[in-house]
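Model: You mentioned two targets. I'll fold them one after the other.
Researcher: Yes, keep them separate.
Model: Target one:
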Amino acid sequence: MESRLLARTNKITNTSGLSPTHLQANLLILPTAHAQSFHDLCRRNPVTCPLLATTPAGNPHTLQPSKIIQSTDFDIRTDCPAYRVYKHGKCIAQRRDILDLWNDDYVGFLIGCSFSFEGALGRAGLKPRHQETGTVVPMYRTNLPLLPAGVFTDATCIVSMRPYRPEDVEKVREVTRPYLSTHGEPVAWGWEGMKRLGIEDIQRPDFGEGPFIREGEVPVFWGCGVTPQIAVESAGDKIDGLVFAHEPGNMLITDLTDEDACIL
């Protein structure tokens, strides 16, 4: 996969629109002691944390199920364009790879990403605005609680946002609804929906870049795979050792197509 090689050699960043027919994934890597708790968290929160695949402990080259990445030339330590490093719930560094921080106690998790249905939106004449502007999709903290699991308690969900005209919202819902493995249809839309999520200022996202919203458009919100990073923040000192994640907007591009996302 050419896009993964470009990420590995630090030649790309924001992956929205890259390899537009392929499934993209969020990434979280954490010590084995917390792997089962995180697996349970994903199963209890499938809208924001749709689990696609895992790696065996200590093996950065193999995914289960293996069909997600079919190439033997694969490494979760290098194949995202950028990474975040967490310690005691705080992001302490941003890296282009994590090769020198890896050890055999780590387990990787791939989480579905809403970038995967953006090709379908484009084909339906509903191209996401951040692709037009060449910016990173805006992402926001909400007041929606995650169902807890193990050390992951008291966390709330992250949502991504794409603006659309009110008359297009039903079509947007229809197009994205089948993509359950990549967050599915929106969780809220409109200015009242924004207020219900607890978002105060649409121009000040917590991740990504501020949006360009045209007059008459409304915000439309989807579950977001940055949510696991908020779960790590909430766990704080309960997690021993470093945790690694993708930099928001810098995804792992898989070998599956966006059509596969509808049947996973």
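Model: Target two:
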Amino acid sequence: MGVFSGHWPSESELDKLRQKVAEMSGRDAQEVRVVVSPYRICPLGAHIDHQGGTVSAMTINRGILLGFVPSNDTQVTLQSGQFKGSVRFRVDEVQLPKHISKKNGLNEQIDSSKPQEECKWGNYARGAIYALQSKGNHLKTGITGLICGSEGLDSSGLSSSAAVGIAYLLAFEHANDLVVWPTENIEYDRLIENEYLGLKNGILDQSAILLSSYGCLTCMNCKTIKHKLIRPPEVQNNHDGELGNAYKILLAFSGLKQALTTNPGYNRRVAECQEAAKLLLQASGNEEVEPVLSNVEPEVFEAHKSKLEPDLAKRAEHYFSENERVLKGLEAWASGNLKEFGELITASGLSSIQNYECGCEPLIQLYEILLKAPGVLGARFSGAGFRGCCLAFVDADRAEEAATFVKNEYCKLQPELASHINQGPAVLICDAGDCARVI
């Protein structure tokens, strides 16, 4: 296990990927295009996007790379840098959501010479076709492509699923000469996740990946779907972006891995938020409104929260307090106050544990270790909190020291889980990233 930082994607990574796709397709490496689809972090706005809350996000300089060339026909042929097997289907085949195809006993359209479990990673590519088809796009050109994540990196908790979905969308759109706005692709990726795969998440992940800009904090109102970029003062006045050099982003990995679609905790929390909203709206005489907490006024929550069961009251308390933290955090970022920004991140992490109750012991331990690490300004879970990693903002000059401290302390508390992180870094030092793009 190590500590790692560096630029992404490097020219050598891009050249290597182009060469592999050229070998797969029999085409010249210069014809290969690469989708760069970064992972995202959510400093503030945890677990409120699915309730129409206001969230903040930024990308990091790690993520998904998809090298591809357009096919001469409708055929899609995909390979993965992480998983075995090939995925093959045609872009003009009708794609059904996974729960429908399973219910009707329809076989998944995969290379029958490969074990099925090896090819489930192709569901996101088929989901991208489903999303594009469902909005009336007629695709005629497939792709030959190779998809891979940042080398040696466990992407749990970094919204890798949204990064993958967006990578496929951008590749299919590019191959078919479709002009699609980022806001449209936010909806397309929502269709992949919500309708095709059956995960009840919001639009934070894909919004961050598609709308972010280097050095900025992306603010998204998930109810109105309006967004804005918050620039720190140094970036406004200095193109070198001095604030970008004042901090680093630490990602500390737990060794816990489990897909969100197989963890009942995530969808259960969403349902609890909706139930709390429903009861609060009924209490205020607004039961005809959609039961999400963004439709409940804060004063209605204060007036009627005693009528909620303790668990539902906690979920609502997290929503309203987190919304307030986001607004304060945007002001802190805009004024360059990293200290206050970090304190709000830590408070968000505590509310996730106490009110949203989404943490598990290893991640809570990791969160607490990060708060003790030298130079750390603030920390919280990254992602849903049932697996994956924690994030922290740290003074740039102390990032290496903090990373070593966290790695050593976590090994003492969770030696077995820490031993699972032997293929990649236990702690990753990152910089802010940019939006998804084709290069």
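Researcher: Noted. Anything on target two?
Model: The mean pLDDT is 87.
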